[in-house]
Design brief:
Radius of gyration: 23 Å
Structural class: alpha+beta
Helix content: 25-40%
Number of strands: 23
Number of helices: 15
Length: about 550
């Protein structure tokens, strides 16, 4: 699954009060308040981290070995030729508030996730070309999910399905603003908007270590809402924070100088930074401007005009790679090796634009109707890397007569614009891949998906190429052969590169910081990187 802007970084005018240190409490920062505490409606990185730390799952993918490991489910069996999956739950499971967690609650979570009236990123990955699977609870500790045709590797999809507090299905409970119970290692104990979130050890968590000691080892986790990455690093260097799950390139250079033992570079990440134009049918743009943005030729011209190598060198200090398309080369099996980063070629960009009736006069590019080509470009404020990416785009496009007005926005305002009101023109953000298998990326590529960035939640595909991607995505979601799936995903990548709905810029390296006081960390490229084995982390 991909999450929108999962490495969002922000500015903040003052240092948040850090508060007194609490014994055996892990402390780190996230960029903004989570958009939701409902594990079925997680659409950005801050909420994803909270979900991972609190929501119990049936199975978990080990981020280091890649193996699928039992969690709430003690075992599972794939049968009927890959059509049906039966989970056997551990007996006596409870939510953090002491209420029972049985196969009935798991079934209710699945029903909510798959409800077409309430689009859920978690549910998107569980659909197939034939629609919603049958869910059958056969005992308090057993349930079966059955598809009409085989669904490849769908056991691993349940790594991303947090079993939800049943009360979240009740609008009356949601309106109270009460914090939900959870079945993971921690539960949400406190939420102080704009300040911090405190998670406490789940007293009913099932897991124990080999000596029989109950997990997690930590008593609590405090997530400070810290929008400024410079302040975050300063606090880490002072010992106020135990980790930084993502370090930007500038701060990584400083970290290497001041605390080299804490600096970790894991090499190329699965993530990407990209630019896109608003193609939504909502009437938030003049029609002549929308015509630019829906033109593949226009988008390809913009892609030709930007200098990706400059972005790697200037913005990331070499700790990144020019992006070739929607899958990072770090994802070695699924990456389409035929694809290469698009060459910078301003002359080719102007040639393409001329074929669409654009003309460069006195340093200003104008369309057929005489409108000067100008648009605003939004991103999250305080993310120095994205701000500099935007400045390079701004400078590069000015060379072909296009004026770009850069507008950094606070996170919630940004998400409202790109996901609700559609009141924006272009944006630079990023996707963080939660898993290697692109099966989990349907929430982005299906035209009906909520994270189909340029035009989400389409009732029917707006273009033939989007219809073809829908067809390929649904086909590979039910195909049993990994090799056949690979061919389908390769074609999706070729279509995305050819039609340019997203202009891929760079794949950053994964950089993080881990205090020597934090024991048991095994950082991995796949999210949540440093935190994936949180129940085993200790402080000394």
């Amino acid at each position: 699954m991909k999450r929108f802007a999962l490495a969002l970084l922000f500015t903040f005018s003052a240092v948040a009060a850090s508060g007194p240190a609490v014994p055996n409490e892990l402390r780190f920062a996230i960029a903004a308040d989570p958009g939701s505490f409902d594990p079925l409606h997680v659409e950005e990185s801050n909420a994803e981290i909270v979900r991972y730390l609190t929501a119990g799952v049936l199975v978990r993918v080990n981020r280091v070995s890649g193996n699928l490991e039992p969690e709430l489910a003690a075992s599972w069996n794939l049968n009927e030729g890959g059509r049906a999956l039966t989970f056997q739950l551990r007996p006596g499971l409870k939510f953090s508030d002491g209420t029972p967690l049985t196969a009935v609650e798991v079934g209710h979570t699945l029903e909510r996730a798959l409800d077409p009236k309430q689009p859920s990123p978690a549910g998107d990955t569980l659909r197939s070309a034939e629609g919603i699977p049958e869910i059958r609870v056969t005992s308090p500790v057993s349930l079966t999910i059955r598809y009409k045709t085989p669904k490849p590797g769908f056991e691993s999809l349940f790594d991303g399905l947090g079993i939800a507090d049943p009360r979240l299905a009740d609008p009356a409970f949601v309106k109270t603003g009460k914090l939900p119970a959870s079945a993971g290692p921690f539960y949400i104990a406190e939420f102080h908007r704009g300040d911090f979130i405190r998670l406490r050890r789940n007293p009913n968590y099932w897991k124990r270590d080999q000596a029989g000691h109950p997990l997690p080892y930590l008593d609590s986790v405090r997530l400070d809402i810290q929008q400024n990455k410079d302040i975050e690093l300063t606090r880490f260097l002072r010992g106020e924070l135990h980790l930084i799950n993502r370090v930007d390139p500038d701060n990584f250079s400083r970290l290497q100088k001041e605390r080299p033992g804490a600096a970790r570079n894991l090499g190329p990440s699965l993530d990407s930074q990209f630019l896109w134009f608003n193609q939504n049918a909502a009437k938030t743009l003049p029609e002549w401007k929308r015509k630019w943005f829906t033109s593949t030729v226009f988008r390809r011209a913009i892609s030709h005009a930007v200098h990706r190598d400059d972005m790697v060198r200037i913005v990331y200090g070499g700790s990144a790679h020019a992006a070739a398309g929607p899958i990072s080369p770090a994802n070695r099996f699924w990456f389409n090796k035929e694809l290469k980063p698009l060459a910078t070629d301003p002359a080719e960009a102007l040639k393409l634009l001329a074929s669409e009736g654009f003309a460069l006069r006195d340093g200003v590019l104008k369309d057929r109707g005489g409108h000067a080509v100008e648009f605003s470009l939004v991103t999250n404020s305080g993310n120095s890397a994205r701000e500099r990416l935007a400045q390079i785009v701004q400078s590069d496009l000015l060379k072909i007569g296009i004026r770009v007005n850069f507008v950094p926005l606070e996170f919630n305002s940004l998400m409202d614009r790109i996901g609700k009101s559609y009141d924006y023109e272009a944006a630079i953000l990023g996707f963080t891949n939660v898993e290697l298998d692109p099966l989990l990326e349907k929430n982005v590529w299906l035209s009906s998906g909520p994270q189909h960035a340029w035009a989400p939640l389409q009732k029917s595909p707006a273009t033939p190429w989007e219809a073809r991607i829908d067809e390929l995505e649904l086909k590979q979601a039910t195909e049993g052969s990994r090799e056949v799936r690979k061919k389908a995903i390769d074609e999706v990548q070729r279509i995305v590169v050819a039609e340019v709905p997203l202009i891929y810029l760079v794949n950053p390296d994964y950089l993080c910081a881990i205090s020597p006081a934090l024991q048991g960390a095994q950082p991995a490229v796949a999210p949540p990187q440093v935190l994936w084995n949180v129940e085993w982390l200790r402080l000394r």
